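Our preliminary data section would be incomplete without showing what the modeling component actually yields. Below, a chain of 133 amino acids is followed by its predicted structure, encoded as tokens that our downstream tools consume directly.
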Amino acid sequence: MSDMQEPSIDGKQYFITFIDDFSRYCWVYFTLRKDAKTIHNIYTKWRADAENKVGERVSYLQTDVGGEYQKQMAEILKSSGVTHLTSPPYSHELNGLAERQNRTFKDTARTLLCQAHLPSSFWTKAVEAAYQI
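Predicted structure:
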């Protein structure tokens, strides 16, 4: 989960990425909050889409140790048979694939906004464009 400095024109503050470790296919979702309930709703939507596209069940989910993935999400993952892998606190380099993807989206979005002379509040549109590239 990554955040931008200010809310977007559509009121979003954060974006979350899900990356298939095998194919490197990436999904991007935007959200106003990063609480457990919001993350659960996004996860449910992503899981249905991912399993439909791939034709396989989700087996593992690797995350950082953010509070939004603790308790409620951990219980949901366990009950659905998904193994939850976490990287140690303050070790972003061990979650390198997701960290690099989020950085690429942010850098590309900032570049697109600068080149288009748009205010930073259009960041969701720029991240969507970066996602399509």
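The domain at 2-132 is CATH 3.30.420.10 (Nucleotidyltransferase; domain 5). Strands lie at 2-3, 14-19, 26-31, 60-63, 83-86. Preliminary results of this kind motivate Aim 1 of the renewal.
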